[in-house]
Structure formats: C-alpha cells, structure tokens
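Progress report, Aim 2. The chain analyzed during this reporting quarter is listed below.
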Amino acid sequence: MTVDSGHTAVVVAADCAEADAFTDILIGLEMPENGEIRLDGDEVTRWLPAERGIGLIPAGAGLLPHLTVEQNLFLTARDDHASPPFRGVVAYMVNKTDIHGFLRSRPHELAHDERLHVALARALCRRTAVKVMVVEDRTGCDPCHAAVSAALATDPDLAVLVVTDDRTRVASLASPSRFRKVVDAPHP
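Predicted structure tokens for the chain:
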C-alpha cells in the first residue's frame, strides 16, 4: 500500500485489536512477521519509533487528563526542562495548529475536535520530521474527521493514514477531492 504526500488512505481492520496491532507495527512498537515499512524509499521497519517520521493521533486524542495542554505537548521532550530549541518547536506547532488559546486548559475542558488538534500538535512536536500521520479511528470513539482535516491543513505534504475498525465511516474519512484507498487488513 502506498500513501502519497498530501493524500489520505484508510485501512479497515476486522476489529479494534487488529487495528491496534496494525498501528503498533506502523509506529514501531511491534515488529511485523514479514513485509516491510518504507518511507520515502527508506526501509524503516527496524528503526526506532522516534526515528521513523511517523506520527500518531490516537483515537480519542490520547491526552493525559491530569496535565495541561502545554504539559501534554512537552511530553515528547521526555523531561520537564525542555531545551530552548525544543521549546521553539512546540511554540511553532502551537501557532501552526492554532491551539494557543488552549495551553492552560486540561483535556476534559476541550471539545473533541479541539483535543484532536492538540494531539496533532503533540504528534508534530518531534525531533524527526513527521512525513506520515497515522490517525486512529475506533468504534466507540468520536469520529476522527477533524484530525484528518487538520493534519492536511497544517502540512499539505503530510501523508495521512487512517486505521479504523468502523467500516461505516470509511466513505467520509477522506475529502472527495483527495485520493482515497480502502484496504481490508484481516491480519496485520
């Protein structure tokens, strides 16, 4: 399967567990039994998750409820005293994703779409540039449409891959003006 920059593709898994397993392989938390993952021609299957250039927007946004939006963004720095250059990256992504009004808020104080925008900003606040954004869409969670739209609006060169277990949402997950490819993934 190929997802070109600026386009959205959708992978439909049989259930939530298979969707999670597929996502874990893409982002590098698990290794596939066979096959490979390529990004811009480079085989990245054995690369560490932080080196892959693949970001993740979890279903439901995956924000820690006891932290403010700003603290959630700094999680990618892995310490409370992020370096000045990393603070600059966070400030840039805050402006680019237009979430500066939420920095002191906690996730429960935000609307669903706002939480997805924060999750997008957090996924983009990495030392390795993100080229592919994986967006989880799960049955039982609010739809991820805002995350897909925001990712493409924030960086038109991003490739967006939605991994879902909800076949009923497939037709509405990609903009009609965008290429859409649906692939059943019975075994990740």
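The domain at 8-185 is CATH 3.40.50.300 (Rossmann fold). Residues 176-182 have pLDDT under 50 and may be disordered. These observations will guide the mutagenesis work planned for the next reporting period.
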